[in-house]
Amino acid sequence: MRSPPLCWAFTERLAMMTTATTTRATRIAAPPSNRNLHRGIIHRTFAHQNSSADRKDIIKNDSFPEYVQKPFFTFEVLHESKRSRARACKITTPHGTIFTPAFVAVGTQGALKAVPHSVLDDANLDLMFANTYHLLLQPGHEHLQKAGGIHKFIGRNRPTISDSGGFQVFSLGLDADELDESKSPNKNNNGNNNNNNNGERNHGGTGTKELKSRGKTKHKQQNLLEKVDEDGVTFRSYRDGTTLKLTPESSVQAQKNIGCDIILPLDELTKYDISLQELSESVDRSHRWETRSLYEHLKNVKEQAMYAIIHGGVDERLRKKSVEYLTSLPFDGYAIGGSLGKNREELKELLQFLMPIIPRDKPNHLLGIGDLPSIAHGVRMGVDSFDSAYPTQIARHGTLLSENGPVNYRKSEYREHFGKPAEILGNSSGDDECKCLLCRKHSLSYLAHLDRANEPMAWSLATEHNLHFMGRTMERHRQAIMNDEI
Ligand SMILES: [Zn+2]
User: Fold this and answer.
1) How far is the C-alpha of 156 from the C-alpha of 466, rounded, in Å?
2) What is the per-residue pLDDT for 248?
3) What is the CA angle 385-387-392, rounded to 5?
4) Residues in Cβ contact with 49 at an 8 Å cutoff, skipping those fewer than 6 apart
5) Nearest in space to 258 (alpha carbons), one of 365, 106, 138
6) How far is the CA of 356 from the centre of ligand 1 (A)?
7) How many whole angstroms from 434 Cα to the centroid of ligand 1?
8) Whole-angstrom distance, CA of residue 87 vs CA of residue 79
9) How far apart (Å, rounded) are the C-alpha atoms in residues 267 and 204?
10) Which is nearest to 378 in space by CA: 102, 78, 99, 77?
11) Of 139, 162, 337, 399, which sits most exposed with the smallest number of CB within 10 A?
């Protein structure tokens, strides 16, 4: 079997730090001309970050307004399982409803590779992910603004989420040895890293030695990451070599122009194998960047929700600190980012201590995880949504998801399988059978033929099947929660 690319990855304090007497909340309501004042405050905050006493000022930031649920973004728990932390919820956005637990398909460039958006609706997948980094470079966030935002531009009036662009930018700085390592076909064959050649999203990973790896992309033939400093990240465009800078503020502005329903703050991504001290410093920087991102977002909310990104790697103390800090700010939900461990077992352990301390009154999202065992465990631990390019990537590389495990449709044994694909993929009878085009109309033999003939329809059929499979899997999880079965 060809190894598929797998995805696995201030009020009184403010007054103390500045001479101002008004709260930051007041400033948020003030006209945009206060931007410089805001930046001044932020930079002074950074200037005070050297001592641990001043860090406490940053961590207990009470200058933001109290969180109030927004009319355009509501969260409702439909049922909490009596057997686990699992819960079925409903998130309402300006572009429709997301039922959770949900799998979020990745449409990197504002498109799912090889299939139209309608496949998501047919597969019962509500939310689609878009990558700010890719949209920044092509066609440009101003272009999307001109078009009236991503929903109008791509012609899908359903919920969307975008990342900050930081993950891909940081991944440009992978070391040469990591690049070599990621070329090994058997590395991380675990369902959660995205060693892809197309730059699809694989958020939160820190190299190839872990569960959720950045992997290699065609953009990484040279080191395009130029500088990381307190202000942001400087990098060169893989398209034309132009030097660009991503700051918390510019990332949020780009995401405002793109216009997804849920946006994410800029955070720092580090390698997996760094010292605890380095990780701790990175968590602090992510917190400062996320604070700046939220501040920028609240100046002009534009019917968008922003999730915080909880960091801290697999270190329990740092994760707890991250939860404590980020839950003190008025984010609309919580994403779990950063390194999630070397393997599923570490992810499991991480979720076991992390999920019970994440507040249950807002939605949460596990970044970059899409393998079925991890999703099943995450659901029981109370995770609301998961995103990964895994199901769509493996489809284009010869793998169909099935009730009986992954099926490599390039194997010779399927060349003459003329019967219903469900005979191999499961669910050949009953109400739960796959409603994708491949399972309804074609055979594995035909699929194998199209693939060998390099007919793009092969990848369309396989992608559609895998998305239907993910949709059915999540529907089963939701039903099992409603019935208190998990
Ligand atoms: Zn199917």
Assistant:
1) 20
2) 98
3) 135
4) 55, 58, 284, 288
5) 138
6) 36
7) 4
8) 6
9) 9
10) 102
11) 139
Q: What percent of the chain has pLDDT over 70?
A: 76
Instruction: Please write the tens of the pLDDT for every residue from 280-302.
Output: 999 999 999 999 999 999 999 99
Task: Quote the CA–CA distance of 20 and 14 in Å, as a whole number.
Answer: 8
For residue 102, give the 3-state DSSP assignment: strand
84 Cα–ligand 1 center, Å = 30
Catalytic site positions = 163, 387
Contact 93, 69 (CB under 8 A): no
**In whole angstroms, what is the distance from residue 9 CA to residue 27 CA?**
38
Mean pLDDT of 65-87: 96
Cα–Cα distance for residue pair 77/83, rounded to 1 Å: 16
State the average pLDDT for the chain: 82
Distance 186 CA to ligand 1 centre (A): 27
Q: Which residues contact 109 (CB under 8 A, 6 or more apart)?
A: 130, 131, 134, 135, 138
Tell me how far the alpha carbon of residue 2 lies from the centroid of ligand 1, in angstroms. 21
> Is the peptide bond between 101 and the residue preceding it cis, with omega within 30 degrees of 0?
yes
Structure tokens at 90: 């409903």
pLDDT at 129: 97
SS3 call for 377: helix
Question: Following DSSP, what letter does each residue of 186-254 receive, concatenated?
Answer: TTT-SS-----SS----TT--SSSSSS-----GGGSS--EEEEETTEEEEE-TTT--EEEE-HHHHHHH
Instruction: Give the CA dihedral 270, 320, 164, 27, nearest 10 degrees.
Output: -130
Lowest mean pLDDT of 170-179, 281-290, 412-421, name the range.
170-179
- Ligand 1: distance of its center to the CA of 274 in Å? 42
Whether the predicted pLDDT of 186 surpasses 60: no
414 CA → ligand 1 middle, Å: 15
Q: Tell how strand 333-336 and strand 364-366 pair up.
A: parallel
- Digit-coded pLDDT (tens) for 356-410: 999 999 999 999 999 999 999 999 999 999 999 999 999 999 999 998 899 999 9
Separation of CA 375 and ligand 1 centre (Å): 20
Helix (H) / strand (E) element for 283: namely: helix 276-299
Which residue do the tokens 């990848």 mark?
A: 459
| Residues at Cβ < 5 Å from ligand 1 ion | 434, 436, 439, 465
Task: Give the separation between CA 254 and CA 246, rounded to whole angstroms.
Answer: 10
